[in-house]
Amino acid sequence: MSMIAAFYGNKSILITGATGFLGKVLMEKLLRTSPHLKVIYILVRPKAGQTLQQRVFQILDSKLFEKVKESCPNVHEKIRPISADLDQRDFAMGKEDMQELLASTNIIFHCAATVRFDAHLRNAVQLNVIATQQLLVMASQMPKLEAFIHFSTAFSNCNLNQIDEVIYPCPVEPRKIIDSMEWLDDTIIEEITPKLIRDWPNTYTYTKALGEMVIQQEGGNLNIAIIRPSIVGPSWQEPFPGWVDNLNGPSGMIIATGKGFLRSIRATPMAVADLIPVDMVVNLTLAAGWYTAVHRPKSLLIYHSTTGGLNPCKWSEMGLQVLASFKKIPFEKAFRRPNANFTTNSLSAQYWNAVTHRAPAIVYDCYLVLTGRKPRMMKLMTRLLKTISMLEYFTNRSWEWTSANSEMLRSEMSPEDQRVTVLTTQAARNRMDCISRYCLPLRKSLAG
Ligand SMILES: NC(=O)c1ccc[n+]([C@@H]2O[C@H](COP(=O)([O-])OP(=O)(O)OC[C@H]3O[C@@H](n4cnc5c(N)ncnc54)[C@H](OP(=O)(O)O)[C@@H]3O)[C@@H](O)[C@H]2O)c1
């Protein structure tokens, strides 16, 4: 039997960000492989007119959880949603809920974050730094806590080319940034943001780096591990190939290409597209939680969950594979025939944006107006190009991440765990196999 699955079998687990992409897959795998776990507490905020119960029911009724219900029919009873807003002091949590969490939690997985690249620095600091700090304070009051697993990103130090599994100091101490957020107004923060974040490309990666420093400085005696995934994409195998429910990052790019909206991007064809399927990140996370709790390493360990060093895929190969996939199964109502051009030059990128993106959008909007419909293509195109421009920093560079801790973790796992737990795409027969495995189902998942 899997030692990792058995380990979680009698635990009370707290997950923040369980309604997000990674959090849902983590929750699903825990329930499917350790159906006897005591409870999963999830911190949820009411949203879009839905109560938390409605939000949780919607998640558990989704396709992602179909398999779980076979091994864990009472899945609804295993999830205990707790109303919480991580932007608020003490997470705006009820006293009784807080006491129950403090008394019972064995393992914490801290996934919640703002992943918006263009978030206002105040919001990004609040969620990615201050909320982490508050959670550490809570964790220090949990007598039964065995492990605290924090999600960071492989790009938290993207201002460096070679990244080791260590925490790199930020130029300004997190405490000073947190203090300044209290008395500076939003306009001044906006003005000084470029100076503060220096060579980080956005507030997301910068505040994730600050979050890591907070963990290091304020983690005290807690047993902590940090997971640093690169670009998380649809599932490779579990619970089924190609699961994804958002259009963030590569998924959005792939769909926009398949639909014929996006035909040219500013990307270096030979740069590595460091994508990691979500199920592999979750596998590593669960293994790290088990190792941290059972082996209690002397210092905080950081685990890179990346593919570039082991099984690199370049953006040009990615483009070819995506086109081949859509040739096999095209979208029914595509805007144009899919194509994928790469340019590294900003002038030619502007030219292609005008010619292949904006001009057809204007023509199409004219057609909509002439046929009595509301124009919408230019609005959609502007949003798409804005999103793609935020990814340019990442599509034009390559990074090298070391992975000694992930390799050590694998060697510590039982033969059965090594058999059932795929930690990296190295296990894929080759890199193309991995891309096509999630590209085709991705197209099916998001069809329409
Ligand atoms: N996806 C990637 O490519 C990637 C790559 C590297 C690292 N990571 C890291 O992995 C973690 C999870 O990422 P993800 O892709 O799953 O993000 P996601 O889909 O955007 O999910 C974010 C989660 O945080 C929750 N959250 C945000 N603000 C909150 C608040 N004020 N109070 C309570 N909950 C709040 C969201 O709740 P709502 O549903 O209520 O909004 C959601 O559950 C993050 O730490 C991220 O930095 C992600």
Describe the model.
- The chain has a domain at 3-242 and 274-312 and 398-427: NAD(P)-binding Rossmann-like Domain (Rossmann fold), CATH 3.40.50.720.
- The model has no long low-confidence stretch (mean pLDDT 92).
- With 448 residues, it is of the alpha/beta class.
- Helix 12 (278-295) crosses helix 16 (404-412), helix 13 (315-328) crosses helix 18 and helix 14 (346-370) packs antiparallel against helix 15 (377-395).
- The longest helix has 25 residues, at 346-370.
- The strands form four sheets. The chain has a seven-stranded parallel beta sheet with strand order 3-2-1-4-5-7-11, sandwiched between helices.
- The chain is 49% helix and 12% strand.
- Bound molecules: NADP nicotinamide-adenine-dinucleotide phosphate (NAP).
- NADP nicotinamide-adenine-dinucleotide phosphate binds at residues 17, 19-23, 43, 45, 47, 84-87, 111-115, 127, 151, 153, 208, 229, 231-232, 249.
- This is Fatty acyl-CoA reductase.
Features:
about 450 residues, alpha/beta, Rossmann fold, two-stranded parallel ribbon, 18 helices, globular, binds NADP nicotinamide-adenine-dinucleotide phosphate
